[in-house]
Amino acid sequence: MAGGNALRPSLNLAGCAGVLNRAFEMKDAPAVAIVVNSPGGSPVQSRLIYQRIRDLAQEKNKKVHVFVEDAAASGGYMIACAGDDITVDPSSIIGSIGVVSASFGFVDAIGKIGVKRRVYTAGQNKSVLDPFLPEKKADIDRLKELQLTIHQVFIDLVKNSRGDRLVEHKDMFTGMFWTGETGVELGLADAIGDIRSSLKTRYGEKTKLELIEPKRGLFGRRQGVSVGLSSVLGAGLPQSDAMANITANVADSVLTTLEERALWSRLGL
């Protein structure tokens, strides 16, 4: 599972539900192994994926083994907690149990180029934290309140999943992240290893791994992942509208890439 980013998460339940169902439907498989490689994403989608994995594991009576590649941080770690055990590389990055909201302020910028912001609302709280208007303390306090609530949901999920394997640490739930090696010492993960050797050790040398991937759609692209040109060509739009969609999709793709790059950069990756 490769993550997207906090604002435009490519990793969501709709995109991976089919893959999960196919994996757990394999009757002869005693377990499902999930590879997680994500710097984070939507807390809602991450928890939905976590819950779907746990529901399927219970329904199909299968063990779930999670293997972390470069990172399982923030929402990525939330998903990793769906495993009965978590195996990491010594240099994997795991943790970041916290909540972040990021934005920009353009109040001075639009003033310098002679632009005036006009916002009309019905409801006094309908335009909170508008990046083109000065910040209000009440709006910031409200955002912090929401963040603390979401953070507590995350903390409870980790505690319920990891149980007494967790080692008490002052920075455990502060958003701090660690290497896989330290993560094992803290109880955030269970072992150092890789998917092939770990599963063969557990289930025997004759263990066979069957890769389950998203089905490919139009033009061989992975289904469940947002597409640019192919979504336009399949829509039957007039040429002018199609060109507008292509331009919008390209711009959105660039912004998404920058945001995702920023998430990975937070982890030094």
Short description:
The chain is of the alpha/beta class and about 270 residues long.
How does this model look, in words?
The protein has 269 residues and is an alpha/beta fold. Helix content is 43%, strand content 12%. The chain has one domain (13-266): 2-enoyl-CoA Hydratase, Chain A, domain 1 (Alpha-Beta Complex), CATH 3.90.226. The chain has helices at residues 13-24, 43-60, 75-80, 107-112, 137-162, 180-186, 195-203, 229-233, 239-266, and strands spanning 31-38, 63-73, 85-88, 93-95, 177-179, 191-192. Strand 1 (31-38), helix 2 and strand 2 (63-73) form a beta-alpha-beta unit.
**Kindly state the mean pLDDT as a whole number?**
79
| SS summary, helix count | 9
- The CATH class is Alpha Beta
One letter per element, helices H and strands E, the order comes to HEHEHEEHHEHEHHH
Helix content bin = 40-55%
Find the structural class using helix and strand composition.
Answer: alpha/beta
CATH topology group: 2-enoyl-CoA Hydratase, Chain A, domain 1
Count of spatially separate domains: 1
Strand content is: 5-15%
Biggest beta sheet attributes: 6 strands, mixed
Tally of strands: 6
Overall radius of gyration: 21 Å
CATH architecture: Alpha-Beta Complex
Q: Would you identify the CATH H-level superfamily?
A: 2-enoyl-CoA Hydratase, Chain A, domain 1
Ranges with pLDDT <50 over ≥5 residues? Answer: 3-9, 217-252
Form type: elongated
Distance between the termini: 17 Å
Indicate the topology:
Elements: H1 13-24, E1 31-38, H2 43-60, E2 63-73, H3 75-80, E3 85-88, E4 93-95, H4 107-112, H5 137-162, E5 177-179, H6 180-186, E6 191-192, H7 195-203, H8 229-233, H9 239-266
Parallel strand pairs: 1-2, 2-3, 2-4, 3-6
Antiparallel strand pairs: 4-5
